[in-house]
Amino acid sequence: MISIQLRSLTFAVSMVLAGAAVAQEAEGRTRFILAASWQPAFCQTNQKKAECASQTGERHDATNFSLHGLWPMRQDYCGVSDDQKAADKDGKWSTLPEVTLSAEMQAALAKAMPGTQSGLERHEWIKHGTCTKMSVEDYFGVSVHLVDALNASAVRDLFAANIGKTVKADAIKAAFDKSFGPGAGDRVKMSCRRAGNVRVISELTIGLSADAGAASAKTAGLGDLIKGAGKTSFGCDEGVVDAAGF
Asked: Strand 166-168 and strand 66-72: pairing?
C-alpha cells in the first residue's frame, strides 16, 4: 500500500515538473538584452560628455530612443586581454581598439548611438560584442536594426508625444503589446533616475531570444525576438519623458 502511494506521489511530482518545463519552454528564455536609452535623461546627469554637450532639440536622439547596446546574457569580455579589460573598466575608451566599420554602417551607428562621440561603440564591442559569434559589422548592424524597429513603433510614438510629461508603466507595456505582440511588455524593464526633483525615464532593457545573436537578426522582426524571451519585472512604474536641454 505504501509503495503504491509513493509511486503515485512520484508520478504526481514528475507531472508537475514536466508541466513547469513545458511552461518555461513556451515562455522562452532571455538570451540577449537590447538596451535603449532616452538620451535627454541620460544627458541630465552626464552634461560634460561630448554627445550631451552637442545635443539639440532637433537631433534624432532628442525624440527617439538611442542605442546603448546589445548584450549577451551573463557573458562579457570574451577573448579580451587584461590590459584592454582594465582600460575599459576605467572608462579609458579612447585607448581601446578602433571599431572598423563600412562607411554606411558607421553613419547609421553615429545616428543611432550618439555615444560614439565618447567611444561607446569601442566599449560595447570589447565588453559585449566579443561574446557573440558575429563580426563587428554584423553586431552593430543587428543592434541598429533593432533600435530602428523600436523607433518605428508605438513605444517611440508614446514617448515623443509625451515629452515633459509623466508616462506610466501600463501605457508603455500596452504600446509594446500593440507593436510587438501580446505579452511583449512583460519582457521589458524600465529604469529611471533622479534629475533634481524629477524622476525621469532613462532606459528600457528589452529581453530577446538567442536568435538576436546571429547576423540574420538584421532582417528579423523585433516582435519575434521579444516573444522568444522570458518575462521580467517592469522596474520603475512611472517617470517623466525628459526633453533635450539642461
From this structure: unpaired
Cell triple for residue 230? 522570458
pTM above 0.85, yes or no: yes
pLDDT value of residue 23: 41
Q: For residue 44, what pLDDT band results from cuts at 50, 70 and 90?
A: very high
Question: Confidence band (pLDDT; 50, 70, 90) for 246?
Answer: confident
Measured CA angle at 203 (ends 85, 133), to 5 deg? 45
Cell of 131: 561574446
How far apart are alpha carbons 59 and 170 in whole angstroms?
28
In this structure, the number of other CB atoms found within 10 A of the CB of residue 105 comes to: 17
For residue 124, give the DSSP letter.
Answer: H
Q: C-alpha cell of 56?
A: 539639440
Q: Among residues 227, 205, 224, which one has the least CA distance to residue 147?
A: 205
Distance CA 205, CA 167 (A): 17
